[in-house]
Write a structure and sequence with these properties.
TIM Barrel, binds 6-O-phosphono-beta-D-galactopyranose, eight-stranded parallel beta barrel
Length: about 475
């Protein structure tokens, strides 16, 4: 696919999320959030400073402009905009995002804003349990309303929720302290149900406030292959895709779930509590697009042992068993194996099921990296990974699938969910370690200059 020229309107972008880059945890009137992690929480990264975007945003936007991106997929921090439970916005929080958004627009970069990226205001968890309670739906809508009104005309594309699968299953994100594995699992399904209700109401709200803007969810795209051609393994792979992806997207897009999902949830005692009128809310709106996050594919085989709900991640239990894929090549941080063609397979399946335009909101390669003795970072492995995946996006476009754009994860090194700065994805190196934040100096990696060329040429260099 080298040599293919992407259409003029194709959006080239780069991604981050608020809690992973911003820092400034105790500044600007921000309230506490579940994702605020100080030292001393084993296995979880300290993100109080993160990439210090809070203080480096001017320089970072200069870098984005130099890179030539059309779109910056970013997040708002709910707890920076609404620090307490009063539902009143924090003027300093809004002013921070005003400055960022206005500067992006001056530079001709479109902000694609995620409202909810794993970060749950701690006050709402303390007050009523966060997403476990229906009260969270109103709190989310109030936050969404503040954002839609305040940024009307400036933010033209919104994301409701990033990766519901992880947003509602990881206790680090939800703040759920339930220890009993079955009850925790039940909570997870109840939370996703509430998230889906909140998403549909937010879509309807945006239509009434700013009909010119568009909105959609971002999924953690699942491409699950059967371990063998046995029918048991094939059914297991189907079940895995149903439970890890389609269940959530069906709620977000169609407002219903498949008969199999409904059966499974009842069988296991996980069916969420439903109230009169919910079905109407779920059926009342449809997103404008789907955001697709993709890093690697997975593999499943027929389950032989009974399901265990005490394993992490909680959703890995079901009528399937996740296993290694002998055909995929793995690296230290990409344990499931790198599979560029999986991106095309998964997006074709998504289109067949939902018929919505799609945008790749996250795709990238993690490594442990350091500055070389001459102060550079040469990352040919990342260039290779990105080139192979962009080639598959090009194939989808050639085949006629509506792919709006592609965003690299991540613009700059940021605080990985569990591995902090030991695991880096950025096109720009951030000079800090997990134990020494230094000055977070920015250094362009070779992938930065490579991606700049891809954007300029609207495609991959022709290597033939
Ligand atoms: C996605 C999240 C991102 C980011 C990415 C990489 O699931 O949307 O926020 O964290 O995965 O994952 P990790 O940080 O665990 O390496």
């Amino acid at each position: 696919m080298n040599g293919f020229t992407f259409p003029e309107e194709f959006l080239w972008g780069a991604s981050t999320s608020a809690f992973q880059v911003e820092g400034g945890a105790a500044e600007g009137g921000k309230g506490p959030a579940t994702t605020d992690r100080g030292p001393g929480r084993p296995g979880i990264s300290d993100n109080r400073v993160a990439s210090d975007f809070y203080h480096h945003w001017r320089e970072d936007i200069e870098l984005m402009a130099e890179l030539g991106i059309d779109v910056y997929r970013m997040g708002f921090s709910w707890s920076r905009i609404m620090p307490d439970a009063t539902g009143e916005p924090n003027p300093e929080g809004l002013a921070f995002y005003d400055a960022v958004i206005d500067r992006l627009l001056e530079k001709d970069i479109e902000p694609l804003v995620t409202l909810y990226h794993f970060e749950c205001p701690q006050v709402l968890v303390d007050a009523f349990g966060g997403w476990k309670s229906r009260r969270m739906i109103d709190a989310y809508l109030r936050y969404a309303e503040v954002c839609f009104r305040h940024f009307k005309g400036r933010v033209k594309r919104w994301v409701t929720v990033n990766e519901q699968l992880i947003a509602t299953a990881a206790p680090d994100n939800t703040g759920d302290d339930e220890r009993d594995p079955r009850r925790r699992q039940k909570n997870t399904y109840q939370m996703s149900y509430h998230v889906a209700l909140a998403e549909h109401r937010a879509i309807a709200l945006l239509r009434s406030i700013d009909p010119d803007a568009s909105i959609g969810p971002v999924c953690a795209m699942q491409v699950v292959y059967p371990r063998s051609s046995s029918s048991g393994d094939i059914l297991a792979a189907m079940n895995a895709e149903e439970m890890l992806q389609n269940y959530l997207l069906d709620l977000s897009v169609r407002g219903t779930v498949s008969p199999y999902v409904s059966f499974y949830l009842k069988r296991e005692g996980f069916a969420p509590a439903v109230e009169p009128g919910d079905a109407e809310v779920l059926a009342s709106s449809r997103p404008d697009f789907l955001g697709v996050n993709y890093y690697f594919s997975s593999c499943a085989r027929e389950r032989v042992e009974p399901i265990r709900f005490d394993r992490f991640p909680p959703w890995s239990g079901g009528d399937f068993e996740l296993c290694d894929n002998p055909c995929a090549s793995s690296t230290e941080w990409m344990a499931n194996g790198i599979d560029p063609l999986g991106l095309r397979i998964g997006m074709r399946r998504l289109y067949d099921r939902y018929q919505l335009p799609m945008i790749v909101t996250e795709n990238g390669m993690a490594l442990s990296e350091e500055l070389s003795s001459d102060g550079k970072v040469d990352d040919p492995y990342r260039i290779d990974y990105l080139a192979q995946h962009i080639a598959e996006v090009g194939e989808l476009v050639r085949e006629g699938y509506p792919v709006l754009g592609y965003c690299v994860w991540s613009l700059m090194d940021l605080c990985s969910s569990h591995q902090g700065f030991a695991k880096r994805y950025g096109l720009v190196f951030v000079d800090r370690t997990d134990t020494d934040v230094k000055e977070c100096r920015r250094v362009r990696k070779s992938s930065f200059f490579w991606y700049q060329q891809v954007i300029e040429n609207r495609g991959l260099p022709d290597r033939s």
